[in-house]
């Protein structure tokens, strides 16, 4: 039975907020809107996805509509894909932690609500794609997180055991995904949503990736 650790990507393994915000701001500029998202203040919004960023910016501009978000979402993805790793960095200790899990015999994979092709490109550009035995994106299956199916697919494709798996994430979406799968969840507290994350009462919390190995061992044995 192979114990398995599945990771969220944005806000968990890597801080992608800078590149996401740059893509959103490029869209607002192309729209002729004065509004801009701030890389520091709006990092938490960025890590909730492209549609959330567009919705927030358009709301601030007094121009929100679902149709406008839908109209510009493909443009945002294009802008993001064109400059996907300009500002993005892996969080401190993330690579070493994943490598340590692999060496200890765990299977590791990624389950993200980023479109699969973009996630594939980003992990490859960051030089870490080879660390993960599986990658499930928002559009890999018919459903996305917090549905349990993408998590299970990530476990299965990593060659892991469902009964000995957990999810590492940073948001309520990850917490609810693990709950739907009835599996433990470890949430990181170093992202923009620290207090909200603690309020979600996950089975485990880490403030740095150096702490992950002990939490995984505690929860999976």
Walkthrough of the structure:
This protein has helices at 17-31, 43-46, 50-60, 66-82, 94-103, 116-125, 148-157, 172-181, 194-199, 212-220, and strands at 4-7, 14-15, 89-90, 107-111, 135-136, 165-169, 185-188, 204-206. The protein is of the alpha/beta class. Strands 5-4-1-6-7-8 form a 6-stranded parallel β-sheet, with helices on both faces. A two-stranded antiparallel ribbon has the order 2-3. Strand 6 (165-169), helix 8 and strand 7 form a beta-alpha-beta unit. Helix 1 crosses helix 3 (50-60), helix 3 (50-60) crosses helix 4 (66-82) and helix 7 crosses helix 8. The longest helix is centred in the middle third of the chain and has 17 residues, at 66-82. The relative contact order is 0.17. The mean pLDDT is 96.
In terms of topology, how is this protein built?
Layout: E1 4-7, E2 14-15, H1 17-31, H2 43-46, H3 50-60, H4 66-82, E3 89-90, H5 94-103, E4 107-111, H6 116-125, E5 135-136, H7 148-157, E6 165-169, H8 172-181, E7 185-188, H9 194-199, E8 204-206, H10 212-220
Total strands:
8
Mean pLDDT: 96
Instruction: Please identify the structural class as seen in this structure.
Output: alpha/beta
Largest sheet: 6 strands, parallel
Low-confidence stretches: none
Strand content: 5-15%
Question: Any idea what the radius of gyration is?
Answer: 17 Å
Shape: elongated
- Adjacency order of strands in the biggest sheet: 5-4-1-6-7-8
Number of helices: 10
The rounded distance between the terminal residues' Cα atoms is 12 Å
Helix content: 40-55%
The H/E string reads EEHHHHEHEHEHEHEHEH
């Amino acid at each position: 039975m192979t114990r398995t650790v599945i990771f969220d990507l944005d806000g968990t393994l890597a801080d992608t907020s800078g590149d996401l915000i740059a893509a959103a701001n490029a869209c607002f500029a192309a729209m002729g809107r004065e509004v801009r998202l701030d890389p520091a203040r709006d990092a938490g919004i960025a890590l909730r996805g492209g549609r959330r960023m567009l919705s927030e910016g358009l709301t601030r501009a007094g121009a929100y509509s679902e149709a406008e978000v839908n109209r510009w979402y493909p443009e945002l993805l294009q802008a993001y894909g064109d400059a996907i790793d300009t500002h993005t960095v892996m969080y401190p200790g993330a690579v070493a932690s994943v490598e340590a899990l692999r060496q200890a015999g765990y299977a590791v994979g990624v389950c993200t609500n980023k479109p699969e092709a973009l996630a594939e490109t980003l992990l490859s550009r960051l030089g870490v794609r080879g660390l993960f035995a599986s990658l499930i994106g928002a559009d890999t299956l018919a459903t996305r997180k917090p549905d349990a199916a993408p998590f299970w697919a990530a476990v299965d494709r990593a060659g892991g055991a469902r009964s000995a798996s957990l999810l590492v994430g940073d948001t309520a979406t990850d917490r609810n995904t693990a709950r739907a799968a009835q599996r433990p969840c470890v949430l990181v507290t170093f992202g923009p949503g620290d207090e909200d994350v603690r309020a979600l009462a996950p089975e485990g919390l880490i403030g740095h990736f150096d702490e992950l190995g002990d939490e995984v061992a505690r929860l999976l044995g």
